[in-house]
Amino acid sequence: MALKEFYPPIEPYDSGLLDVGDGNEIYWETCGNPAGKPVVFLHGGPGGGLLPAFRRFFDPAAYRIVLFDQRNCGASRPSAADPAVSLRHNTTSHLVADMERLREHLSVDRWLVFGGSWGSTLALSYAQAHPGRVTELVLRGIYLVRRSDEDWTFTSSGAARLFPAEWAAFRDAIPADERHDLIAAYGRRIGDPDPAVHLPAARAWMDWEFSANTLLPVDPPELDDGAVLLFARITHHYISNGGFLPKEGLLAGIDRIRHIPTVIVNGRYDMKTPPDQAWDLHQAWPEAEFHLVEDAGHGGSEPGTRHRLIDATDRFRRR
Question: Which of 52, 107, 233, 304 has fewest C-beta within 10 Å?
Fold first, then answer.
């Protein structure tokens, strides 16, 4: 079977900043066919922002492709790269409301929602809040933000056992007497106004974040100090607050979206969002199409994962 490749690079035909309240403006762009089927792409992180490659999961002749930077990241304003910028108005419910405001601003009635990693969390949250606005869901690297999911990432009994050197660097950036709660210890440092405190902590946090993204090692992205602080601040903000999800979690709301055609894709060797999360979602939602990619980790561009995602968008373009 020939694996599907990315569509050729494209540029936006329209873009702008949308006032979403609370002093925030989100950057948005549209690509592809202005008269095509609407699709919205939800980036990961939280705080990851947009990359040009994200436009390439969709047939530009068939889709009106909508992408946006979530609050306080990418080209959205104000930027969390400024340590003085408050994240008080940056929660999952705010992001869901931003999507609705953007949908209305662009005069979209209903759209396909595509999200990977944290983007899958936001996609599920949005669909459960506004099921009538979603035509289909394409979800990758399922992230349910349960306590067990965070224990995998931030305790010595999970991914640390597979990445011992990287874990040691992450752990040892914190004094021994504070290591009983690494998330809280990092929060105190990342939130410190002194760059001599928050920048080393933010870099150590992001080094751990990037340590296990793909099945085979790749060089991490080169980020300047502002991008590192932005990403670390927003990611920590969400992780330390349980993703701002309802206490019962996302699986409890599946009945609200069970009717929506959905494709779930996860790498077998995903060390960031291990496949038990995708499996648990599929067990709660057996009607959803489920693909476990045997030769993939967490990255959306890994060949087998890319193939399944583009195959899904190709099939859904005809609906």
Answer: 107
The catalytic residue among 59, 69, 98, 270 is 270
Tell me the residue range of the domain where 127 lies: 14-147+244-316
Residue 87 near residue 80 (C-beta atoms within 8 A): yes
pLDDT in tens, 140-175: 999 999 999 999 999 999 999 999 999 999 999 999
Please confirm whether the linkage preceding 46 is cis (ω < 30° from 0). yes
Is 296 inside a domain boundary?
yes
Told to judge if 43 belongs to the known catalytic residues of this protein, a careful annotator would answer no
Q: Which of 94, 237, 282, 298 is catalytic?
A: 298
259 is catalytic: no
The answer to whether 172 is a known catalytic residue is: no
The string of pLDDT tens digits covering residues 243-290 is 999 999 999 999 999 999 999 999 999 999 999 999 999 999 999 999
Give 238-241 contacts, CB < 8 A, sequence gap 24+: 238/46, 238/92, 238/118, 238/145, 239/145, 239/150, 239/154, 239/183, 240/183, 240/184, 240/187, 241/91
- Give the domain CATH number at 251: 3.40.50.1820
Number of domains forming the structure of the chain: 2
The reply to whether 117 and 203 lie within a common domain is: no
The residue annotated as part of the active site, out of 76, 94, 98, 117, is: 117
Contacts of 65 (CB under 8 A, 6+ apart): 30, 31, 32, 36, 39, 41, 55, 58
